[in-house]
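Handout, tutorial session.
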Amino acid sequence: MRYQPHMTFVITDDAPLPNGAHSDWLVASDKTRFRVARFHPTTPPIGTVVLLNGRTEFIEKYFEVIDDLLARNYVVATLDWRGQGLSDRALDNRHKGHVEDFDLYVSDLRQAVIEYIEPNCPGPFRLLCHSMGGNIGMRYLGEHPGQFESAVFSAPMWGIGKHARTPLWMRAVAKLTRFLKVTKPYIPGGGDFTPKDRNFEGNQLTHDPVRFKRYVSHIDKDPTLELGAPTVGWARQAIRSMDTIHSPGFVEEVIIPVVVCTAAEDALVSPDAQRLVADRLPNGKQLVIPGSKHELMVELDALRAQFFTAFDDL
């Protein structure tokens, strides 16, 4: 079935709008407005993939991935997290990546599922998460069981950098800023989105220059999509949320089939943390993809093909 698009998207020449596009806005209990979207295949769907993107990202960045899922006859439902994409930003400086509590992300996802996805999208439901979306997605699976039949994680944020667990010095800084009631400054060394963030050379996301250029083209078309570094408040809440995932008994309650796909060259989130969590999942396994940077779904063809093989096998 072909749906008439509802247009609230940033469209560029090298990233056309996928089929059956519809977008809308939801308003959270604290009055934050966030964008939701869904895409429908031309043939009868076999279910719905709920796609959760990472920090700094936005729906349009995943148009190619959405097309891949539509070709598999899935409806795709997704959203812009509060504080990024076209959703409301928390601070006057919209470059600052800030959230008061990661619980708000989980709550926004719950609202999207109940108010937008379930009424408009067919089951069964599969979860597909990347990076920060993988943190929120695992929290959701642990706190709201029975919603999804399976889950695939791409480089999930269960540890920062190379650290499987947050090191003591990071925890000390987080405690100090909490004691001082400091939440809104950038993390040390962080700042606004700048022209150098548009450069492919030296990026930590992908080896693929074409897919990187597509990402930049959306930001060039609509600079309101730009997002800089996180705040110290975001970082403190990220540590707290990662601790929840690593807490005894949490992931053991996630009994659905899960595949954790790890980027071997990831410099942003911890492959070791992913291994620790995958080993504890009752029905989980880890796939390490050699030669890949952080963004497995926007990597070179040969690398992203390994990711989608794992998705299909599950």
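The second record follows below. Compare its token runs with those of the first.
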Amino acid sequence: MRRARLIINPIPWARRAKDKLAEITNLLDEVGIRVDLTFTKLTESMTQSVGQAAREGYDLVIVGGGDGTVSEVAAGLVWTGIPLGILPCGTFNNIAHSLGLSLDLLEATRNIARGNALDIDVGVANGVYFFEAVGVGLDASLFPIGEEIKEGHYEKVLQGAVRFLRHRKAQITLHLDQNKVDLQTPMVVVANGPYYGASFTVAPQASLTDGRLEVVVFECSKVEVARHFALSARNRAHEEPCISMYQAQQVSILPQLPLPAHADGKPIGNAPVTCRIIPRSLRVIVP
């Protein structure tokens, strides 16, 4: 028997998967994977729970939740060599989409049972791991409001619209490995995978295994930014002429004035931000 720690975020799980737990654990037991279940609590770090699982000698960690839950659990497994299995049950499931995982939980469980592992790249921004993308500027100022809207606080829509309309372009210097780029832009995104936020295809060519970060520069008007994100939602690719793409292993974002920054939607303070890629440092189970 192999031992697996199953870490579940109870909020999305209760919404989308509450009747699947027994079937999932039975499927895993049939292939020799004994599951020990943990429900996350708001007062404890999932990354710490993963560290405990590593110390206790588990062969596998499985996470059930959305992108935030998956990111926090994955952060505790970087460089451990312990495979991560994902049961996607969040709102957008960008990480699952980037890995080609099924959103059907029973098929995702069968995938974990097959155990095909792949070592993927992990980004780090000012010491914080990220698996989707880092943003500086406009998107970082809107992400917290977007999270509240996602939780049903629709009165925040007007606040988000006002913040969007008031935002101005900023003077930013980018250091891309050995190259330097000066620009005026409302936002810069550094992507590890193709998708982030509300299933926006921010970097269609991004790969989790190529050892590089995709740097997306928006030298755009607000209308062009809004159009791009409207047309790139739901995992659709769309290109605007005002958007430039770069690749680098290390990226420094240096604004003349302080700008907010996020990593996978979580605020990480104000830029400057330095991002780098850590190749093949997380083992995940893929189709």
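Points raised in discussion: The radius of gyration is 19 Å.
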